[in-house]
């Protein structure tokens, strides 16, 4: 009788141990194998750009022309043409496009910038020069054809903003290209003339960095030539975008950065 009791006690202990072990088994509903030792992912760098050791970056910042306005299809805009050319030529470059319609120099100023002049646009920290430099680009292309003049910002005000943007880029050791002014059908001829005046001042300050195609697509009074007009008096059509693409592609600084011999 005593032996039978011992056997029953021993059996009970074995069953209890077995039951408690099952709760820690790999098949238990409360066990998440995704966080088990063999499935813990390696530490992932939150900045994927740092992991890309193969490609270089070109970042475009600017306004509606950079964003592709006026082109009938996305593939016809100048940024897409440039991207396709680099891919077709097996160049290890990625083109990032931060163009946003309506933007002026103020929207692209470095993060933390506050204008001393009242009622000026605030910086877009997602699309500005600081955001562009997070890609550690080999080249930044600035495409701001006419919105500063449309907003009646003063010449020196515009140039001062460019100096801040360019100084920020230069501090990162990236190269930069600035597209010059673009014609626009402003009602007042004086405002259209300012496109040429600011364009010439920019060339004077950055002679090897300004891609100047203003007069190629302008009337004598700096409206848009009909063959390049998208019809709204502001934007360029497919032919105009193609001209910008070709002008940038042929620009000596671009050739040098993109390793075209």
How would you briefly describe this protein structure?
This protein is of the alpha/beta class and 261 residues long. Helix content is 39%, strand content 9%. It has helices spanning 2-22, 64-67, 78-88, 105-108, 129-133, 147-150, 155-171, 189-205, 238-250, 252-257, and strands at 56-62, 93-97, 139-143, 175-179, 210-211.
What's the structural domain tally? 1
CATH class: Alpha Beta
Q: Unreliable runs, pLDDT <50, ≥5 residues?
A: 5-46
Question: Roughly what percent helix?
Answer: 25-40%
Tally of contiguous helical segments: 10
Mean pLDDT: 86
Query: What's the number of extended β-strand segments?
Result: 5
Shape annotation: globular
Features:
alpha/beta; Rossmann fold; Ester_Hydrolysis_Enzymes; 39% helix; globular; five-stranded parallel beta sheet; 10 helices; SGNH_hydro; SGNH hydrolase-type esterase domain-containing protein; 261 residues; single chain; SGNH_hydro_sf
Describe the 3D structure.
The protein is α/β, with parallel strands linked by helices. It has one domain (51-257): SGNH hydrolase (Rossmann fold), CATH 3.40.50.1110. The chain has ten helices and five strands; from the N terminus they run H-E-H-H-E-H-H-E-H-H-E-H-E-H-H. The chain has helices spanning 2-22, 64-67, 78-88, 105-108, 129-133, 147-150, 155-171, 189-205, 238-250, 252-257; strands at residues 56-62, 93-97, 139-143, 175-179, 210-211. A five-stranded parallel beta sheet has the order 2-1-3-4-5, with helices on both faces. Helix 8 links the parallel strand 4 (175-179) and strand 5. The radius of gyration is 30 Å and the shape is globular. Residues 5-46 have low confidence and may be disordered.
């Amino acid at each position: 009788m005593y032996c039978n009791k011992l056997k029953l006690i021993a059996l009970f202990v074995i069953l209890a141990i077995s039951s408690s072990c099952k709760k820690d088994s790999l098949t238990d509903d409360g066990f998440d194998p995704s966080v088990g030792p063999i499935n813990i992912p390696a530490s992932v760098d939150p900045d994927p750009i740092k992991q890309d050791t193969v490609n270089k970056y070109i970042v475009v910042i600017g306004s509606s022309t950079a964003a592709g306005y006026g082109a009938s299809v996305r593939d016809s805009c100048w940024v897409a043409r440039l991207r396709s050319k680099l891919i077709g030529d097996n160049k290890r470059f990625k083109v990032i496009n931060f163009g946003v319609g309506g933007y002026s120099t103020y929207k692209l100023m470095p993060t933390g910038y506050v204008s001393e002049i009242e009622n000026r646009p605030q910086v877009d920290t997602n699309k500005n020069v600081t955001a562009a430099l997070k890609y550690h680009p080999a080249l930044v292309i600035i495409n701001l054809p006419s919105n500063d003049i449309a907003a009646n910002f003063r010449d020196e005000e515009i140039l001062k903003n460019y100096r801040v943007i360019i100084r920020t880029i230069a501090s990162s050791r990236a190269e930069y290209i600035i597209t010059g002014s673009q014609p626009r059908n402003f009602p007042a001829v004086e405002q259209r003339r300012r496109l040429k005046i600011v364009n010439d001042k920019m060339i004077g300050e950055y002679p090897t960095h300004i891609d100047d195609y203003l007069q190629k697509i302008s009337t004598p009074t700096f409206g848009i030539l009909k063959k390049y007009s998208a019809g709204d008096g502001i934007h360029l059509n497919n032919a105009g975008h193609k001209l910008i693409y070709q002008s940038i592609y042929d620009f000596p600084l671009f050739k040098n950065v993109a390793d075209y011999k």
